């Protein structure tokens, strides 16, 4: 970084330009945590059938093997904040990378189902930590003028992680001729699906060593010279007075902060403030509409209704591409249309498409692995499933994370967000673990249930969710 004093009188606009160029790399490196979030939670998709047959699992144990990582994620998300305050943001990201690396290797070399559950729990903790610390770090190092766009990199990284995981699963399965077949080093393809996750985990751990510590953390620890150095690098500030003012602003905000407690969330409605319940229900409905069934079980689903294993993997990859593209559209629309209108549009669309999927599967014959969708219902179900992903990706996918980050009052934001995030992981676990059991009752029943929750989400948004577009964070109230 050139620290030529002649640049110290540069305009604010020039400083913003330098700041944007410098901070993009930092934000991208941190956002790999979001990539791992998506990769680790979706990589199980291609391995479900092979794991079930290889270990002789029933529906209940299959569901738990797939969803157990989400329990670890809830734990990791809950403790990420205290860990980051103790160790620092960068060191905490390295801890998350280590957990994910151990999980990738351990899951690929397991000898039994409970070994797999154990290592998936370890990976889940890493995912939970990464899902919280990456966006928090990006917000703390980003200049205000680009914070929103850089913060959106987390959601984009998540859907890219899902896409790469499903693409990797498909390539490995096709290379081996099936997920259960041997590939390299006398290991089945499904084991390599887990092992390959060690590559992005290593990349994450290495890249975050090159990013600076959060200036907010450094000031909180009294390491003011280091904080000044980071601010000079990240914001391209060269004026000593400006640096002193920035450090003093951070120190003042930290001194004025009161660490929120769970007791601060108490309110008149069932023991909690209304805004807290709104956050919890946003998180729960995001999962109860069944989106992760598509990303965790879709290969099994399409295989079970007549598509070949190869075609089932290809369909799953195509669906993840759709998810990436519509997330880009949502990022472009969120500040133009608003959060609430997009949620309403998404709820209506998901109700219709999930209802159509339920109708399609009501036409199926057979059951279990012999389930068959007669023409044209198989193709209609495929189109409806991808339309459902479009509706979710435009709305409830990114909008819930946007709202949770901005809807709570300053004095309770951190603890309320932790509660809502934990509720989201637990709801994800409930839906993911019960799908194999629900599918045994009937896929029509399962998707009909998700359609019902999508309809409830519409009523909830219309009655309980406030629009936050254009409102300053300081003006949010309970």
UniProtKB/TrEMBL annotation:
Where is it found, in Gene Ontology cellular component terms? Answer: plasma membrane
Q: Which residues form the Major facilitator superfamily (MFS) profile domain?
A: 26-469
Q: What kind of membrane protein is this, topologically?
A: Multi-pass membrane protein
Mainly localized where? membrane
- Catalytic activity entry: D-xylose(in) + H(+)(in) = D-xylose(out) + H(+)(out)
Q: Where in the cell is it found?
A: Cell membrane
Keywords (alphabetical) are: Cell membrane, Membrane, Sugar transport, Transmembrane, Transmembrane helix, Transport
Pfam families attached to this UniProt entry? Sugar_tr
Q: What Gene Ontology molecular-function terms does this entry list?
A: transmembrane transporter activity
TM regions (residue ranges): 21-39, 59-81, 93-113, 119-138, 150-172, 192-211, 271-297, 312-334, 341-359, 379-404, 411-431, 437-461
Family, per the entry? Belongs to the major facilitator superfamily. Sugar transporter (TC 2.A.1.1) family.
Q: What is this protein called?
A: D-xylose-proton symporter
What does the record give as the organism's lineage? Bacteria, Pseudomonadati, Pseudomonadota, Gammaproteobacteria, Lysobacterales
């Amino acid at each position: 970084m050139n620290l030529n004093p002649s640049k110290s009188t540069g305009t604010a606009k020039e400083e913003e330009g330098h700041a944007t160029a410098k901070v993009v790399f930092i934000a991208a490196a941190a956002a790999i945590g979001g990539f791992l979030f998506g990769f680790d939670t979706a990589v199980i998709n291609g391995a479900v059938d092979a794991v079930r047959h290889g270990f002789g699992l029933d529906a209940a144990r299959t569901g738990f093997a797939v969803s157990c990582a989400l329990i670890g994620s809830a734990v990791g998300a809950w403790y990420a904040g205290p860990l980051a305050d103790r160790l620092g943001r960068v060191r905490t990201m390295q801890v998350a990378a280590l957990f994910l690396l151990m999980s990738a290797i351990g899951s690929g070399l397991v000898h039994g189902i409970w070994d797999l559950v154990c290592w998936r729990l370890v990976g889940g903790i890493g995912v939970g930590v990464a899902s919280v610390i990456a966006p928090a770090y990006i917000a703390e190092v980003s200049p205000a003028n680009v914070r929103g766009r850089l913060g959106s990199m987390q959601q984009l990284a998540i859907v890219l992680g899902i896409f790469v995981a499903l693409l990797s699963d498909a390539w490995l399965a096709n290379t081996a001729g099936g997920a259960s077949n041997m590939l390299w080093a006398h290991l089945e393809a499904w084991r390599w699906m887990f092992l390959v996750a060690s590559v992005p985990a290593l990349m994450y751990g290495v890249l975050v060593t090159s990013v600076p510590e959060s200036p907010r953390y450094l000031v909180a620890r009294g390491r003011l010279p280091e904080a000044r150095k980071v601010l000079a690098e990240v914001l391209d500030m060269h004026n000593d007075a400006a640096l002193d003012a920035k450090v003093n602003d951070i120190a003042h905000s930290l001194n004025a902060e009161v660490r929120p407690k769970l007791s601060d969330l108490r309110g008149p409605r069932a023991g909690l403030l209304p805004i807290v319940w709104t956050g919890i229900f946003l998180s729960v409905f995001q999962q109860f509409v069944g989106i992760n069934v598509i990303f965790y079980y879709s290969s099994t689903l399409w295989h079970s209704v007549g598509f070949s294993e190869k075609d089932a993997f290809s369909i799953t990859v195509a669906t993840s591409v759709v998810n990436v593209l519509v997330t880009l559209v949502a990022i472009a629309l969120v500040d133009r249309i608003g959060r609430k209108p997009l949620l309403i549009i998404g709820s209506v669309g998901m109700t219709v498409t999930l209802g159509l999927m339920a109708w399609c599967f009501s036409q199926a014959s057979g059951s279990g692995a012999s389930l068959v969708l007669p023409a044209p219902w198989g193709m209609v179900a495929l189109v409806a499933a991808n339309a459902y992903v479009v509706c979710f990706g435009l709305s409830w996918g990114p909008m819930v994370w946007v709202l949770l980050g901005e809807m709570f009052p300053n004095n309770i934001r951190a603890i309320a967000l932790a509660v809502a995030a934990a509720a989201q992981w637990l709801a994800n676990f409930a839906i993911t673990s019960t799908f194999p059991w629900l599918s045994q009752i009937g896929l029509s029943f399962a998707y009909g249930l998700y359609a019902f929750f999508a309809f409830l989400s519409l009523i909830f948004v219309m009655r309980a969710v406030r629009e936050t577009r254009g409102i300053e964070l300081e003006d949010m109230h309970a």
